[in-house]
Design goal:
With about 450 residues, the chain is an alpha/beta fold. Helix content is about 45%, strand content about 15%. It folds into 2 domains: about 1-210, NAD(P)-binding Rossmann-like Domain (Rossmann fold); about 245-440, Rossmann fold (3-Layer(aba) Sandwich). The structure holds nicotinamide-adenine-dinucleotide.
Length: about 450
């Protein structure tokens, strides 16, 4: 099939590459000329394990193309996937400006095309315009209207929310737990089922439903996961207040099969490009429909408070005065396996430290370039973990990259001016840190003083 992905970001690039790898002819379109140029020169603009090699393979095979030229990309495609960003606006609502812009441009390109189906090929089947971006329930109807207001040519609509996780995106896309297809016309569902069949050969389901329900599945899934994170963080706070240990509590709680053990790790709260904005978008859907969402509001509040609590812990240790203190920060990306800094807890924490007059020396295995775009020269960047803690008054761990899990703690201690660690990811056992002579603060566990 000839496919155009509109928006070559984390979702569009991964999806387009994986669809190409199944033999489809895919054009990844973007308005960002620099990004497209980079891709054409063989550079992958995001960090995603395995992606650069797969891109290379498919480009060489002539199945994957990158373009900024939207008219041919729209006209030549049987399937168009809208994968542009839908960030929160200042009121917490999903900003669909980019989605509607694409819809309008798709309609215009179809109208200008010579053929009856809005394409330059002699294909007689109508195009399917698929919304993969996460959009509030009911948006697909409006997107359809926005396209139809620009063209009289026939087309089909579908919603196909995406569930890939940054850091394991290829595996998630190639072996999805489920594929959700929202389609009101059977033809759209059938043609998309054909497209996705190679990805579910092991029997995972393709679930076809009405468009509104498909839109809701995405929000319901993300807010459920966000709820688990806020829940365990709230329990962790209670553990701290009452001297319990969240590790033990987790062990006890998660051995109940009804509860399970996924997404129940305490930390600095959820970040990234999806959970924060999707929880806010759900709250806003509630406001618009007079269907209150008190649970989601609490999930959001707990998440914001979690970063605050962590910062208070740092302040508490240094008796409120952070001015002139030097902090080494390990991990900047919002989670391991990605260079995505959107809503990363590290940003809130570093901003706070800088505001209080502290200096920051940071290290992340892959997110330094993106962090530099946020902080510029307000912090120092290092190419390894040990250099970032040289002479530091404390180490702060914001992201649980594998390489931080088993450092040489004797060297860590000897590099630092003071042996103090604030671990936002509970990477180390308490007894280990005590034995190595650290003052060790983590989440939901008693603070440790050296023996
Ligand atoms: P992104 O910001 O990484 O990429 C969006 C891309 O769209 C950018 O490259 C931008 O230049 C491009 N763009 C904007 N307007 C355009 C236009 N008119 N024409 C062509 N390109 C245009 O976004 P993302 O993280 O890939 O997310 C895309 C959507 O998928 C969002 O709705 C998001 O909620 C959803 N989603 C994201 C993830 C994730 O892990 N990132 C997972 C599932 C779903």
């Amino acid at each position: 099939m000839s496919i155009t992905m509109v928006g070559t970001g984390y979702v569009g690039l991964v999806t387009g590459t994986c669809l190409a790898s199944m033999g489809n002819d895919v054009t990844c379109l973007d308005i960002d000329k620099e990004k497209v140029q980079k891709l054409r020169e063989g550079h992958c603009p995001i960090y995603e394990p395995g992606l650069p090699a797969l891109i290379r393979e498919n480009v060489q095979a002539g199945r994957l193309h990158f373009s900024t030229d939207r008219v041919p990309a729209y006209q030549g495609a049987e399937l168009i996937f809208i994968c542009v960003g839908t960030p929160s606006d200042e009121r917490g609502e999903a900003d669909l400006t980019a989605v509607y812009q694409c819809a309008k441009e798709i309609g215009q390109a179809m109208e200008e095309a010579p053929g009856p189906t809005g394409g330059t090929t002699d294909d007689t089947r109508p195009k399917i315009i698929v919304v993969k971006s996460t959009v509030p329930v009911g948006s697909n109807v409006k997107i359809r209207q926005a396209i139809a207001s620009e063209t009289s040519k026939p087309f089909l609509s579908a919603s196909n929310p995406e569930f890939l996780k940054e850091g394991s995106a290829l595996n998630d896309f190639n072996k999805p737990d489920r594929i959700i297809l929202g389609a009101d016309e059977p033809e759209a569902a059938e043609r998309l089922r054909d497209l996705y069949e190679p990805f579910v050969r092991q029997g995972n389901p393709i679930l076809v439903m009405d468009i509104r329900s498909a839109e809701m599945v995405k929000y319901a899934s993300n807010t459920m996961l966000a709820t688990k994170i806020s829940f365990v963080n709230e329990i962790a706070s209670l553990c701290e207040a009452y001297g319990a240990d969240i590790d033990e509590v987790r062990r006890g709680m998660c051995s109940d099969q009804r509860i399970g053990n996924q997404f129940l790790y305490p930390g600095l709260g959820y970040g990234g490009s999806c959970f924060p904005k999707d929880v806010l978008a759900c709250m806003s859907m509630g406001r618009h429909s007079q269907s209150p969402t008190p649970l989601m509001e609490s999930v959001h509040e707990v998440n914001v408070a979690q970063r605050d609590r962590f910062v208070r812990k740092i302040e508490g240790h240094f008796s409120e005065s952070l001015s002139g203190k030097r902090f080494g920060v390990w991990g900047l990306a919002f989670k391991p396996g990605t260079d995505d800094m959107r809503e990363a807890p590290s940003v809130t924490i570093i901003e706070y430290l800088l505001k209080k007059g502290a200096t920051v020396d940071a290290y992340d295995p892959v997110a330094t370039d993106n962090t530099r775009q946020i902080f510029g020269d307000r912090i120092s960047y290092h190419t390894n973990d040990m250099d970032a803690i040289e002479g530091a008054d404390a180490l702060i761990i914001c992201t649980e990259w594998r390489e931080f899990r088993h450092p040489d703690l004797t060297e860590v201690r000897s590099r630092m001016a003071q042996p103090v660690v604030f671990d936002g990811r509970n990477l180390f056992r308490l007894d280990l840190m005590r034995r190595h002579g650290f003052v060790y603060h983590s989440i939901g566990r008693p603070s440790v003083q050296p023996d």
